Amino acid sequence: MENQEKNGGNTAIKNDKGAAAKEDIGQKYDQALKSKQIDRADSIDILYYVGCTASYDINVKEVGINTINILNALGLKFGILGKEEKCCGSVLLRIGDYEFERLSEYNIRLFNSLNVKMLVTSCAGCFRTIKEDYKKMGKLNMEVLHTCELLARLLKENKLELKHEVPLKVTYHDPCHMGRHSNVFHTPREVLRAIPGIEFVEMDRIYEFSRCCGAGGGLKAGFSDIQNLMAQERVRDAERTGAQRLVSTCPFCYQGLQIGINAIQSKVKMTDLTELVALSMGIEATS
Length: 287
Fold this sequence. Notes:
Blueprint: H1 2-36, E1 46-49, H2 52-56, H3 61-73, E2 78-79, H4 90-94, H5 99-113, E3 118-121, H6 124-131, E4 143-146, H7 147-156, E5 169-172, H8 186-194, E6 199-200, H9 219-222, H10 224-239, E7 245-248, H11 251-264, E8 269-272, H12 273-281
Helix pairs in contact: 1-3, 3-12, 7-8, 10-11
């Protein structure tokens, strides 16, 4: 009984710490949002489209915080829509909901009204939907990039300096929307390899043969048990490489693969690419 009480007490302490950490992340996120909320009178070059998952899932908000911190540190003129941001409609489209048409047309009008040069998103699903699927609904008057593409471009232009070592062994998971759907395979790997101290190793199934995490397309919502098993298999792929971190460029994958990590109690830590970039830039990353 004494041991049970002791263990129960430790669990309570851990839960309290976890709750405090999440509250801290939530506060940081709110502060970041307020600091970059678009004022229509302001002149900005880049719209950072945060996406639903990084906006509302407390466990994934660090993606938004780290991205905003990186863009701030680079001195880029950017803003976010904050409460005016609506869902890109990716899942609605994948499950065949006609609401996608109304939502996408609204977003196209809103984005074009901002007169920005570029829309950047950290989410693979948002990236594919806005860049590829919106073409069928209307014309966007801006370039659409995933965060990793912007970072890779700035590296080539010597406008991004990654000087701090990040001594970690990592492997990379190709999100379906980034990889198979959009043919963006090499860019995130280029950014990873540019980070000093990183030991990058590949899983057996990569590129167009990458194993899906199961979180997208409405699968997790409709068949959570299947998604859980899919995520577990992908985490085991990562474990076989000996990597400490499983890196991706998609909040959906982050969310989905974390389920697999928790299910098998893996020691692999789920990480978004932006966290490693922030660390190498000397920014205190949120994780």
